[in-house]
Design a protein that fits this description.
This protein is mainly alpha-helical and 201 residues long. The chain is built from 8 helices and 2 strands. It has 2 domains: 24-115; 136-195, no CATH class. A two-stranded antiparallel sheet has the order 1-2. 15% of the residues are buried.
């Protein structure tokens, strides 16, 4: 698949001012994997934080219930729990720092990590589909058609995806001869568009 970095000028998207993503970060499958990793990290972060807070509260209640206060031991235990809690809270910041340092070598890993959200991935999928359609050749072959259709299928199902498919049909399929190599693919695409709730054929 062609990459959308050609749309950018001096490291910034000329249309919307977004930073250029590295080539790897334009891979939707990779971004979905990173998004899953982010969810796991978030669950870990919240779960450990809550567990540590509960642990601290339990320690305090044990001391109160026992009626015996060992100040030195209580201070040591509390310090360890609070330090662990602070370190857990710093996990997102540590991830961002590591990504930023890695990006100093010319690879924008932090932008990649920040893009790996559901909205970010959907937005990138739309950008890729728009790019493929904007650069669709006048005399497409089967591979051109399938690459562009694959990019469009990455866009969330709905009106916008069907709009892209309708545009592809107009560019690739209108007026084809009956023996054209794309005829069957275009017929299936046209049927899919007509069967949707968004276009009347």
């Amino acid at each position: 698949m062609k990459k959308i970095s050609l749309l950018f000028i001096n490291g910034v998207d000329a249309n919307v001012g977004r930073p250029v993503l590295t080539e790897a970060c334009q891979d939707i499958d990779l971004l979905n994997l990173i998004a899953t990793f982010r969810i796991i990290i978030t669950i870990f972060w919240i779960g450990i934080s809550v567990a540590l807070v509960i642990w601290i509260m339990v320690d305090i209640m044990k001391v109160i219930a026992s009626g015996e206060v060992d100040t030195k031991k209580m201070f040591s235990n509390m310090s360890q729990r609070i330090l662990a809690l602070v370190l857990v809270f710093l996990v997102p910041a540590i991830i961002h720092i590591v990504m930023s340092i890695a990006g100093a070598q010319g690879v924008r890993y932090l932008d990649c990590y920040q893009t790996a959200t559901r909205s970010g991935i959907n937005e990138l999928a739309r950008d890729l589909a728009e790019y493929e359609l904007a650069n669709f050749p006048d005399n497409p072959n089967y591979n051109n058609f399938q690459e562009t259709l694959a990019a469009i299928n990455r866009v969330p199902a709905g009106r916008e995806q069907m709009r892209f498919k309708n545009e592809l049909w107009g560019k690739a399929c209108r007026g084809l001869d009956t023996d054209h190599p794309l005829r069957d693919s275009c017929t299936r695409l046209h049927r899919e568009i007509c069967d949707s709730d968004y276009f009347n054929c």
